[in-house]
Every structure is written in structure tokens, then in C-alpha cells.
């Protein structure tokens, strides 16, 4: 009884062993290159190559794994497996396979070459990552393109790094193109969805960006970066809208806060922030905060130097800061870019007038009287100053005195005349009054030093209608 049981067991063991041996015998001709049946292993490697060509890397690897399991001495299979793993940038595994190959075929030159290329690719990827981390984007791209993507065209880590580099160098359309390649092969690639969404985001194509983030989040609702990108975008749009709504409701101070909050969300989002800076600049102009407005408009113009609206607003802001020349300059170039715009022309005229006004002399100041001074006060001030600054009495500082004297006379010419004084107070053009804007009234007449000014009421008997006969000197009798 016992003996027969043992026999049965032994027989079972024999049968199992037989089956195993048969399997091996059946398999061996399929995969072994060493036993001379080359045709079949050539067929396997042909199939592997075909799969690699159509990027079915895992199928190719499965075939090679099975072959090696069946014949651990099948050297070519290690070689092929090393090559596929290298293309996938699974460098450590690849290295093991090439080493095994070289173990089976010591000194094989193809194997040595492959191994050294593999190590080159591996170190290039490490270098590229290092440069990316330190922000040296051109170097990183160089290593990726020249080495990694040549030896490891199926390396998703390298492809994604390349797209990150394209984003970092603001080449958004290239980033869209390259994420497209990845998504064509794997439409649920979360990294590619994230990066493609970001490219659209930075192009301010916010709807398309949002759709990419949402698609990724449907596949993985807990994906941290996708969540951050999606909700960050939502928040930005919400803040922007809130700022704009506050503007249209006339709540300018709240709008300023909302604009600043929106701008703080993503300083890199230039295509969107340019509008935020401009909106903020406009509100600040309305609030009369010229200096801050200039800063905001500068930010907008730094991003887009052709933004005419920002140029106009900066012109307005400069008027507020009394930078008349700057205002005229900005509005002039805006008017040149947009000649049909009547509002710009109107603003330019305002600025030009303000500039002119700023250059004209303040006759009140020159006579040292207030704007409300009476006729008598003005007359008194004039007499006193004319005496004080008469060139004949200032031989030491004749040039200075002549200039002063000219101004004093011109001031009296305007302020001593009711009509001219009124026009001056209204800010009317001085040149309309027949005086040179910059130089002011010239009491010395045309050439020489003929002094021909008059004033009603007389100046004592002294020099009524008097002049200063030529020859370079003045006569001024009292
Ligand atoms: C590859 O091997 C190196 C050591 O040789 C190790 O530092 C590295 O982490 C390995 N990489 C991977 C992806 O396993
Ligand atoms: C204005 O801004 C506040 C936040 O400061 C916001 O709560 C509010 O909704 C905004 N108003 C409008 C009309 O959008």
C-alpha cells in the first residue's frame, strides 16, 4: 500500500519532468542562437525590431523577456533588450543587459560601443536636469536635443523636460506641438495634459487651458499640480472680473485692490497681466494718483510696447505728475500710431497747452505781487523793481540786470493792462498777445538797444516816452 503510493508519486514526478523537458525541447529551437537553429531566433528579433519601429516597446520587451527566460545564454536578446531599455531611458536596466551581453561575448566591439553610448546618454540626461534646475535653459535644451533624444527617443522623462524647457523659454506653440505628439500616443498622459494646458494658459487661451486641466482632473481628481493649475486659473479670472466690475460700478479704490490681488497671483502670466496693469493704470489716473499710474502703465508697456491705450494713459498720468514734456511725448507717439482717434488728439492738445503754460513766465511772481493784486499795487511793484534793476544802476551785473529789467517791463505790459491781464489769467496763449513765449516781452525793440516801452500814468517826469539811445548804453533819467 505504502510502496504503491510512493511509486505513484514517483511516476507523477517523472511525468512532470518529462513535460518540462519536452517544453524546453520545443522552446529551445525557437529561441536559441547557440544551437545553430538561427532562423527562428532571427524571426524573433525581426518581430522585436518591427515592434520597436512602431513604438510597441513593451511588446518587444515581453518577447525578449520570454526568450531570455527560456535561454539565459541568448546573448543577442540581451543586446536587443539593452537597446530598447536605453531608448526608454531606463539606463540602469539597460546597462545590466549590455554587461550581460559582454559577459557572454567578451570584448565585442558593438557591445562596448552601445555601453559607452548608453552611459553618455545617461549622464547627458542628468546634466540636462541639473541645468534645468539651475535655470540654465539653453544648456539644458542642448544636452537634451544633442544626446538624450538621439539615443533615447522614447524617453518620456526627456520629452516632458523638453516641453518644460519650451514653456520656460516662452515658446508656447512649440510646447503645444510637442505635447500633441505625446497625447496622440497616450491621450490620458497627465503630465502632457498639464503642460499643454499651461501653454494655452500662457497664451491667454484660458478656455482651452481649462479644458485640458479638467480632462486631467477627471482622470485623476487628486493630481496636485493639475488642481493647482485649474483652481489658480479660476481664481485669476474671478479676481480679474471682480476688479473690472468694481471699475464699472465706480468703486475705484476697491478696483485697485482687486487688480493688485489679481496681479499677485501669477507674475509670469504676461499676456494676461498686461491687461491688468493697463486697467490698474486707468483707475489710478481716475483717482489722480499720477505717480502710481505711471508705474502701472510702464509695467504694461514693458510687456507690450505697442499698446497704444497704455501710452495714452501714461500720458494722462504724466500730466498729473506735471511731467508736461513726457505727457506730450507719449500722446504724440500715440497720436502717430492712431491718427484717427479724436480722443487722443484732444488729449495731446491739452498736454501741449499745459506744456506751453508751464513754460510761460509767471508775471505775478516776477513783480512779486499776488494774483489778486490791485492796479495800484502792481504799478507800485513795477516802479520799485524797475528802479532796482535798471541796467545803469547795475554796472557790476549788467547782464543779469538787463534780463530782470526785461521781465519786469514785460510783466507790467501784461498786468498793467486790464484786458491782457484777464487773458493771461484765463491761461491764453502769450504769443497771441504778440510776445515771444519763451523770451517774453522785449522792451528793447528790434535791433540795437532801443528802449521803447511806455506805460500810462507816467513814471514821474523822468523818462516819459523816453528811450535809450543806441550805442550800447541805457539812459534812464529820473
Ligand atoms: C541607477 O543607478 C545609480 C547607481 O549606479 C543610482 O544612483 C540611481 O538611483 C539608479 N537609478 C534608477 C532609476 O534606479
Ligand atoms: C469689488 O471688490 C470686492 C472685493 O474687494 C468684491 O467682493 C466685490 O464683489 C467687487 N464688486 C463687484 C461689483 O464686483
From TrEMBL:
TPR repeats: 75-108, 190-223
Keyword NAD: no
Annotated signal peptide: 1-33
Gene3D superfamilies, A to Z: DnaJ domain, Tetratricopeptide repeat domain
Ranges of residues in domain J: 362-428
Pfam hit, one: TPR_8
UniProt keyword terms in alphabetical order: Repeat, Signal, TPR repeat
Protein name, UniProt field: J domain-containing protein
Amino acid at each position: 500500500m505504502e510502496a504503491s503510493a510512493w511509486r505513484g508519486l514517483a511516476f507523477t514526478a517523472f511525468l512532470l519532468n518529462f513535460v518540462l523537458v519536452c517544453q524546453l525541447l520545443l522552446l529551445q529551437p525557437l529561441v536559441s542562437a547557440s544551437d545553430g537553429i538561427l532562423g527562428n531566433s532571427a524571426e524573433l528579433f525581426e518581430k522585436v525590431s518591427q515592434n520597436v519601429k512602431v513604438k510597441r516597446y513593451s511588446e518587444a520587451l515581453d518577447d525578449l523577456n520570454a526568450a531570455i527566460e527560456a535561454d539565459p545564454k541568448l546573448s543577442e536578446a540581451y543586446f536587443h533588450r539593452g537597446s530598447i531599455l536605453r531608448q526608454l531611458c531606463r539606463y540602469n536596466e539597460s546597462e545590466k543587459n549590455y554587461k550581460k551581453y559582454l559577459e557572454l561575448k567578451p570584448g565585442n566591439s558593438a557591445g562596448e560601443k552601445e555601453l559607452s553610448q548608453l552611459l553618455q546618454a545617461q549622464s547627458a540626461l542628468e546634466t540636462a536636469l541639473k541645468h534645468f534646475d539651475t535655470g540654465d535653459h539653453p544648456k539644458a535644451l542642448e544636452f537634451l536635443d544633442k544626446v538624450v533624444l538621439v539615443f533615447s527617443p522614447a524617453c518620456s522623462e526627456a520629452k516632458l523636460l523638453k516641453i518644460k524647457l519650451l514653456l520656460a523659454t516662452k515658446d508656447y506653440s512649440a510646447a503645444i506641438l510637442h505635447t500633441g505628439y505625446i497625447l496622440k500616443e497616450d491621450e490620458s498622459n497627465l503630465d502632457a495634459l498639464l503642460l499643454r494646458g499651461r501653454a494655452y494658459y500662457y497664451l491667454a487661451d484660458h478656455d482651452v487651458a481649462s479644458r485640458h486641466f479638467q480632462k486631467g482632473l477627471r482622470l485623476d481628481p487628486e493630481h496636485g499640480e493639475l488642481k493647482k493649475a485649474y483652481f489658480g486659473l479660476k481664481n485669476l479670472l474671478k479676481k480679474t472680473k471682480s476688479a473690472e466690475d468694481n471699475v464699472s460700478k465706480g468703486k475705484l479704490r476697491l478696483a485697485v485692490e482687486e487688480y493688485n490681488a489679481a496681479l499677485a497671483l501669477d507674475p509670469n502670466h504676461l499676456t494676461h497681466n498686461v491687461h491688468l496693469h493697463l486697467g490698474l493704470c486707468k483707475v489710478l489716473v481716475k483717482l489722480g494718483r499720477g505717480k502710481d499710474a505711471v508705474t502701472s502703465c510702464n509695467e504694461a508697456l514693458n510687456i507690450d510696447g505697442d499698446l497704444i491705450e497704455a501710452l495714452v494713459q501714461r500720458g494722462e498720468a504724466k500730466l498729473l505728475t506735471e511731467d508736461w514734456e513726457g505727457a506730450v511725448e507719449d500722446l504724440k507717439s500715440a497720436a502717430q500710431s492712431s491718427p484717427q482717434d479724436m480722443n487722443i488728439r484732444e488729449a495731446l492738445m491739452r498736454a501741449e497747452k499745459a506744456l506751453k503754460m508751464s513754460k510761460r513766465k509767471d508775471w505775478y511772481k516776477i513783480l512779486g505781487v499776488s494774483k489778486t493784486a490791485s492796479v495800484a499795487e502792481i504799478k507800485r511793484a513795477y516802479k520799485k523793481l524797475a528802479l532796482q534793476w535798471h541796467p545803469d544802476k547795475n554796472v557790476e551785473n549788467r547782464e543779469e540786470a538787463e534780463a530782470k529789467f526785461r521781465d519786469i517791463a514785460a510783466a507790467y505790459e501784461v498786468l498793467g493792462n486790464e484786458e491782457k491781464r484777464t487773458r493771461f489769467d484765463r491761461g491764453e496763449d502769450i504769443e497771441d498777445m504778440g510776445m515771444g513765449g519763451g523770451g517774453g516781452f522785449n522792451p528793447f525793440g528790434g535791433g540795437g538797444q532801443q528802449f521803447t516801452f511806455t506805460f500810462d500814468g507816467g513814471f514821474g517826469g523822468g523818462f516819459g516816452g523816453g528811450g535809450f539811445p543806441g550805442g550800447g548804453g541805457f539812459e534812464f533819467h529820473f
